[in-house]
Amino acid sequence: MKWSRLLPAAWRPAPQPRQQLLASLLQLAWVVEARDPYTGGHLWRVAQFSRLLAQAAGLSEAEVARVALGGFLHDLGKIAIPDAILGKKERLNDEEYAVIRTHPESGLRLLGTHPLAQLARDAVLLHHETPDGNGYPYGLRRDAIPLVARIVGICDAFDAMTSSRPYRAGMPIAKALSIIRLELGRQFDAELGELFLTLGDGEALAHIVGHTDEGIPLERCLACGPTVVRPREAQTGDALYCPACHSEYTLGPAGAGILPSGRQDSVRALSIAPDAALIERLVEQHRAALD
User: Of 33, 67, 74, 158, which residue has the fewest beta carbons closer than 10 angstroms?
Assistant: First the structure.
């Protein structure tokens, strides 16, 4: 435990203004993700994958931190996607997918004139661009796509493939890696993709897949399937809620996961509050991005 957490709040070192601004962006991203009942932990996982890939690419500490930050913030634009599409249990139709494709530009507008917008702009706007020019929103090709967007694009796609959805189970890591291998130079940057495959083949990704935080496995509602968010600070017996059906669960003892209580509470289930401990740790991890 950090020594500062043992001090009364009034005695703790005051966060620096730029760290407070960084925290505000991370909190916003957390709230946006909380709207989607099926993607809990996605931002954390993409940020971790992105950090590992940036390190493998030989980037500096500050550059690695900026890439990881872009991984956490890349889906800001999903705030503009209707709940009916985000929470749909079936595959999206063409019209709904067209709405999903608007989220990069919506994310750019949401960043607006935030003082730290430049740290995340490329990741937010361009993470769905592909080397073959078939990506969106602009159809950029190869090196016209910024490095951070190429990294986050690989990591975002890998997490999507290895994560479960209502209409399909998540792929095994080996199968997702095989798809990336087939798409090198087309959907994925060839050089970065090879580095990512090396990470995957060396099992450097396995501890991140299927988790919502370091050492915390992803939990799902037994009744309807969405992610039940389990904060690191949660204690045995604490109540947790499904964001879709509002079923209540209690956190069991170590290794037991979540246990259904048989109750529902729509008010508490819909109360969105960022995981303060997670945000604090992310600010510490990404401070180098401010240099």
Answer: 33
